[in-house]
Amino acid sequence: MEITNVTEYEAIAKQKLPKMVYDYYASGAEDQWTLKENREAFSRILFRPRILIDVSKIDMTTTILGFKLSMPIMIAPTAFQKMAHPDGEYATARAASAAGTIMTLSSWATSSVEEVASTGPGIRFFQLYVYKDRKVVAQLVRRAERAGFKAIALTVDTPRLGRREADIKNRFVLPPHLALKNFEGLDLGKMDKSSDSGLASYVAGQIDRTLSWKDVKWLQTITSMPILVKGVITAEDTRLAIQAGAAGIIVSNHGARQLDYVPATISALEEVVKAAQGRVPVFLDGGVRRGTDVFKALALGASGIFIGRPVVFSLAAEGETGVRKVLQMLRDEFELTMALSGCTSLKDITRNHIVTEADMHRSVSRL
C-alpha cells in the first residue's frame, strides 16, 4: 500500500514493533485527553485563503538562530530511537541533513552525541535533561558543543515523569541490548527493571527536581550555545524565560506525556507569542501531522515547528527512508497550503490567514 500521508505510518509501526515499544512511543499521560487534543485543536482552526495571487514560485526557506533551513519543519527530540529501528538516531540525523533541516538529539538517545556527529554535516540541537549530578550535565553539554551541536533545548516540564499508564502496565524498560549512550561511561546508561515503569524509576533517581530559573542562568555560564527553553505554555513563564536569557521558546507539553489536561500546544501558542513580543523566536512542538498544521502554527506566530512521533513511527516502518518521506510529505503539503492560501514566502503568512475558535466567539459576541 502506498503511503500518502504522515499519519499512515503509525499503523505500520504498531504492526512492526513489540507492544511495549509501540506503547512507549504512542501513549500520553493518564486519560490521554491532551494527547487527543494536541491533534483535535488543529482541526478547529480554519483558513481564510487569499486568491488571484501569483504563486508560481514559493519560498519556504527560513533562518533559525542564524542557521539557514530549507523549511520551518524540524525534528523534535525523541528518546530511544534504536527501539524503533537498528539505525536509530543515525538514520534520523541523515534524513534531517538531507532535507536541509535541524535534528534535535535527545539526552536519552541510544546513540551518543559523537556518534550522531559522525554521520556527516548537519545542523543539530541537543535536548538536555538536568541530572542531580551537575558535573554530569556540564560534561554532557561540553561534549555536545565539541561534537558541533549548535543549541541546547532545555526540557523544563519534567521534574518528575508523567504517569504513563501503558508503561506501568508493560513494566517498560529499555531493551537490554540498548543503552543511554550519552551516559554509558558514567554508569547511568542502563535502566533497571521496576515494579512500574523503569523509566519513571530512572527519572526519580537521576533527574533534578530542584531545577529552577537560576539553573537556566547557570547553563549560560558553562556553554556559549544558545538555550531554547522547551516546555513553556503560559505567558508568565515566557516572560521569565526571556528574563533568564533564553534564546528561544519551544511551546511544548511533552507530546502530552507529562501533565494531562493542559491545553494543546497550538491552543497555547498565541499566548506565548504575544508575551514574547518578538524578543525571541517561539516554536511549536506537538500534534503536527499535516502541512496545514505547519501553516496554522506559523499564522499564529511560530517561527517553526518540531515533529516527534511521526519520526519514530516512520523510522520503525522504513528506517531512514521513512523519515525522509515524512519530511518530504510535510514539506510538499506545506508548500501546497501556502500556494492555496496565496502566500509565496513565510513572511506572507499572517494571522489574517486563519480563524480560530476564539475569533469566532469574539465575532459572535460583537453581533
Structure description:
The protein is of the alpha/beta class and 367 residues long. The protein is built from 14 helices and 12 strands. The chain has an 8-stranded parallel β-sheet. Strands 1-12 form a two-stranded antiparallel sheet. The relative contact order is 0.19.
**Gap between N and C termini:** 50 Å
How does the major sheet shape up?
Answer: 8 strands, parallel
Question: How many helices in DSSP terms?
Answer: 14
Would you list the SSEs in sequence order as H and E? Answer: HHHEEEEHEHEHEHHHEHEHEHEHEH
Helix content: 40-55%
Mean pLDDT: 95
Please report which band the strand proportion falls in: under 5%, 5-15%, 15-25%, 25-35%, 35-45% or over 45%.
5-15%
Shape: globular
Number of E-type strands: 12
In short:
This protein is an alpha/beta fold and 367 residues long.
Descriptive tags:
eight-stranded parallel beta sheet, two-stranded antiparallel sheet
Topology of helices and strands:
Elements: H1 8-16, H2 19-26, H3 33-43, E1 46-47, E2 62-64, E3 67-69, E4 73-75, H4 88-98, E5 103-105, H5 113-117, E6 124-128, H6 134-146, E7 151-155, H7 165-169, H8 198-206, H9 213-222, E8 227-232, H10 235-243, E9 248-251, H11 265-276, E10 282-285, H12 291-299, E11 304-307, H13 309-341, E12 354-355, H14 357-366
Parallel strand pairs: 4-11, 5-6, 6-7, 7-8, 8-9, 9-10, 10-11
Antiparallel strand pairs: 1-12, 2-3
